[in-house]
Design goal:
2 domains, TIM Barrel, alpha/beta, about 40% helix, five-stranded parallel sheet, 15 helices, Urease, subunit C, domain 1
């Protein structure tokens, strides 16, 4: 049974309300919040939060766990297009992933995410060597062993065995979703999905939401127009795949009709601007997105373990691209709140508020404001202060500590110590594959 806890002398901010000198009583959910003048201890485990800011832990609406093992990997890399970035790096990585590597990448990613205060994610997985069973392995690492909430899917692609991709998505979706684990039907991108494949997916999809990369680069849209005579979201609609609550990742080159279809089908657009800048593919058109009324959530595309980095880059890139009046802190707040609602709905829990009935997914971060902090300027304090170097000292999920005084749970730390061996094995397989390809082409 989860021990009931009480934060005392807490200043809290939940992307809506800022309050000072409060208490927060919680077990798996938040039970009571109020001013310290009204607090009366009743056998709770007490934590004094003087000098700390209490917040909801953070969430990400699109990421790639397997990308954790790209850190430090050195390969020949001279891309001239986005497709060549995929060919020269990411497709070399994902086709060599087996279940041991998948599990290790899950442990590594979860450990880093927790240290950054991120406790709920929606992942988009690829593992070419062992497709069937790969999502259960990820769930075991991220949800069961690390204690996070996560939704998974396998990115169906003509680069892989299609029947296995479909089987893996169907198998994971057949599991009853719960407060810690859920699923989508994963698709890679239009340019790696034939008509035959989309027809096969439609035959088994039912009402399940899809999770797919769309128009991450101009190449994806151009390929779709050239081959199928329509744009990507129109193609998804033509095949009957654009179910409610689907995730359209990136969407940089979607036009007004595509955005209208996304809104009409009650799907969401997941923005990943740090990755977009790194790949040199472009940035979202925020004015167009706002005008279209599309619900936007925030992901990081697996480029880091941070959510706050995405908040910063969303804001700054919009100002650089469109001017300082194009995107406000209020616009950013709306996207953060959208992401909490969307991710929470996948697990059937309320996330992102410090109110009774919300999940006790919480963090504390040291912060003594150098200037006055109030309801009116609290988000400005976070954005221009804390988010620049965001390192929580304590992180909880459903009231259970995942990080205590900056330290992971010993069992997770022990598992993390062994992940580099699997990363090296992956790197060796990639380099061996490169050598085999070179020999094959001589």
């Amino acid at each position: 049974m989860n021990v009931k806890k009480a934060f005392i002398h807490a200043n809290y901010y939940d992307f809506d309300q800022y309050r000072e000198d409060q208490y927060v009583i919680f077990a798996d959910t938040i039970e009571k919040v109020g001013p310290m003048a009204e607090f009366s201890a009743n056998k709770e485990e007490i934590m004094d939060c003087t000098g700390l800011l209490v917040m909801p832990s953070l969430v990400l609406g699109h990421t790639h766990i397997y990308s954790e093992f790209a850190r430090g990997l050195s390969l020949p890399f001279h891309p001239q297009s986005f497709l060549e970035i995929l060919q020269q790096l990411w497709w070399k990585i994902d086709r060599q992933i087996d279940q041991r590597i998948g599990y290790a990448s899950g442990i590594a990613a979860a450990s880093e995410l927790i240290k950054n205060g991120v406790t709920a994610i929606i992942d988009h997985h690829a593992a070419g060597k062992e497709i069937v069973g790969s999502l259960a392995v990820l769930k075991n690492a991220v949800c069961d062993d690390a204690g996070m909430r996560a939704a998974f899917c396998f990115e169906t692609s003509d680069r892989f065995a299609i029947e296995q991709c479909i089987t893996e998505n169907r198998t994971f979706l057949s599991l009853k979703p719960n407060a810690f684990s859920s699923g989508f039907f994963g698709l890679h991108a239009s340019m790696t999905l034939s008509k035959k494949t989309l027809d096969a997916v439609k035959n088994v999809l039912g009402n399940s939401p899809i999770h797919i990369h769309v128009a991450e680069s101009k190449e994806d849209e151009e390929d779709c127009i050239s081959k199928y005579g329509c744009r990507i979201v129109e193609r998804l609609e033509r095949h009957g795949l654009l179910n409610e609550h689907s995730i359209i990742a990136h969407g940089l080159y979607t036009d007004e009709n595509e955005l209208s279809l996304i809104r009409k089908r009650n799907a969401v657009l997941a923005l990943n601007v740090t990755s977009n800048m790194n790949n040199g593919v472009g940035l979202p058109d925020f004015a167009k997105l706002k005008k279209a009324g599309v619900t936007c959530i925030i992901g990081n595309d697996g480029i880091s373990s941070s959510a706050t980095l995405e908040y910063l880059n969303l804001y700054y890139s919009a100002h650089l691209k469109e001017g300082v009046n194009a995107f406000s802190l209020s616009d950013l707040l709306a996207m953060i709140q959208n992401t909490y609602r969307f991710v929470g709905d996948r697990f059937g829990v309320k996330l992102g508020k410090i109110q009774p009935g919300y999940a006790a997914d919480l963090l504390t971060v040291p912060y003594i404001p150098p200037t006055p902090m109030s309801q009116d300027n609290a988000f400005g304090h976070l954005f221009f202060g804390l988010f620049q170097s965001f390192r929580p000292n304590n992180v909880f999920v459903a009231g259970k500590p995942l990080l205590t005084n900056y330290a992971l749970r010993p069992a997770l730390e022990k598992k993390l110590n062994h992940t580099s061996k699997e990363a090296k094995r992956l790197w060796d397989e990639i380099r061996k594959g490169d050598l085999d390809e070179s020999i094959h082409h001589v």
